[in-house]
Write a structure and sequence with these properties.
alpha/beta, Rossmann fold, 2 domains, about 25% strand
Length: about 290
């Protein structure tokens, strides 16, 4: 089984659009939406949820009022000010460090697993999709990303699928690193803008650090040909081959307005033609066909 992460370094470059449409024209593929803070693959693929799981990504302190003597030591020791004057624990401030539990003379405190999200297993246009939703304000999105990837890989193995396409989140932080872990390659979706180039450079450094091969797609290349040439030259220096230059395509805009994959809206649009080229490169470089 091979794993391809689709990442961008910044939001709005078309990462999810490419991931969804590439899955539609690739045989035997599992999709994993690892942008758990703002998942949106389901908006394009209209999945039918088969089952779901609770995700417990945090431990919070809980007090046994019957054993508590109201000595105030926990409130005095808490560096996060998570215990108010009445001795009540404020979940949104508790970091689950366990200091209060360790120091409570009455043993009235304990750490309890806390639900921070949901994981969904779905059937969709492209086949199968594992996606998740992190609760508002919840932390540890990197842990949830790792869990989504693990579940996608297990489900793909059960179904005999050859490829897992991972739709990563923007940036270079913990969720992106979790998305890239164990990947056989990374598809970099960039755009010829100054912010796009800046973020691509950060992603290139990240891939080099983890020794993961990267492959470049320049989206809307014709909005600035000078910066497009710069992107190509820079990636050549970093040994990141160019897989496709995709022009600005109104078919993409119309498809997204309708909530449809571009391939279903217009199979012969400039975007769709370039995507078929990307599929050929994927089969050659990643799947070895």
């Amino acid at each position: 089984m091979k794993k391809l992460a689709v990442i961008s370094g910044k939001g709005g470059t078309g990462k999810t659009t490419f991931a969804a449409n590439l899955a539609l024209i690739t045989d035997s593929v599992m999709l994993a939406d690892c942008d758990v803070d703002a998942p949106n693959l389901h908006l394009l693929l209209s999945p039918e949820i088969i089952k779901s799981q609770d995700f417990y990504g945090a431990r919070l302190a809980v007090k046994d009022a019957d054993r508590c003597s109201d000595c105030g030591l926990c409130r005095e020791l808490c560096h996060f000010q998570a215990i108010d004057a009445a001795g009540q624990i404020m979940d949104y401030k508790c970091e689950g460090c366990g200091l209060c539990v360790a120091c409570c003379p009455e043993r009235a405190l304990k750490l309890v697993e806390h639900k921070t999200g949901d994981i969904f297993f779905s059937s969709c246009r492209s086949g199968s999709l594992v996606h998740a939703r992190l609760k508002i304000g919840a932390e540890n999105s990197g842990k949830l990303v790792s869990r989504v990837k693990t579940e996608a890989e297990k489900w793909a193995a059960e179904q005999g699928q050859q490829l897992v396409i991972i739709d990563g989140s923007p940036g270079v932080g913990c969720p992106v690193i979790a998305s890239l872990s164990g990947a056989d390659g990374a598809l970099l979706i960039s755009e010829p803008t100054l912010s796009g180039i800046s973020d691509l450079k950060r992603i290139a450094d990240l891939l080099e650090h983890f020794s993961i091969p990267g492959y470049l797609i320049i989206n809307k290349h014709d909005i600035n040909e000078e910066l497009t040439d710069y992107l190509i030259d820079y990636c050549q220096e970093r040994n990141i081959p160019l897989w496709a230059k995709v022009p600005f395509d109104t078919a993409v805009v119309r498809a997204l307005e309708r909530g449809e994959p571009v391939l279903e809206y217009s199979a012969d649009s400039p975007f769709s033609r370039q995507l078929k080229q990307v599929k050929a490169m994927l089969e050659e470089r990643i799947l070895g066909k």
